[in-house]
Design a protein that fits this description.
This protein is mostly beta strands. The protein is 0% helix and 50% strand. Strands 2, 4, 5, 6, 9, 10 and 11 form a seven-stranded mixed sheet that branches. Strand 4 and strand 5 form a beta hairpin. The mean pLDDT is 96.
């Protein structure tokens, strides 16, 4: 099994920045792709960003492109999401996910999920 623990969420004003971290433990050798999803109240969980094992391939939702940056440190089994120019629409619980495949952008491709961290952007 793989355990994922997110951190770095919080309350920030519009235009501010936050950096989310997700630390993986357990059978981390089985992990390849990692990603971030988010779920706002009353809405379905949606894709935010993903990164391949080596970091050479990244994908972003159109709504965050140019504002968010995903990265990973495999030596630390950690993936990051740098969020800049935050907007109230970014308010959601952010979930980290890990997949066994090399690259994954679909929710159904991910095998492991964290518990989530709340991000609230005030106007």
């Amino acid at each position: 099994q793989v355990q994922l623990v997110e951190s770095g969420g919080g309350l920030v004003q519009t235009g501010g920045s936050l950096r989310l971290s997700c630390a993986a433990s357990g059978r981390t050798f089985s992990i390849n792709a990692m990603g971030w999803f988010r779920q706002a109240p009353g809405k379905e969980r949606e894709f935010v960003s993903s990164i391949s094992w080596g970091g050479s391939s990244t994908t972003y939702a159109d709504s965050v492109k140019g504002r968010f940056t995903i990265s990973r440190d495999n030596a630390k089994n950690t993936v990051y999401l740098q969020m800049n120019s935050l907007k109230p629409d970014d308010t959601a619980v952010y979930y980290c996910a890990a997949a066994k495949v090399y690259y994954a952008s679909s929710r159904t491709e991910y095998n492991y999920w964290g518990q989530g961290t709340q991000v609230t952007v005030s106007s």
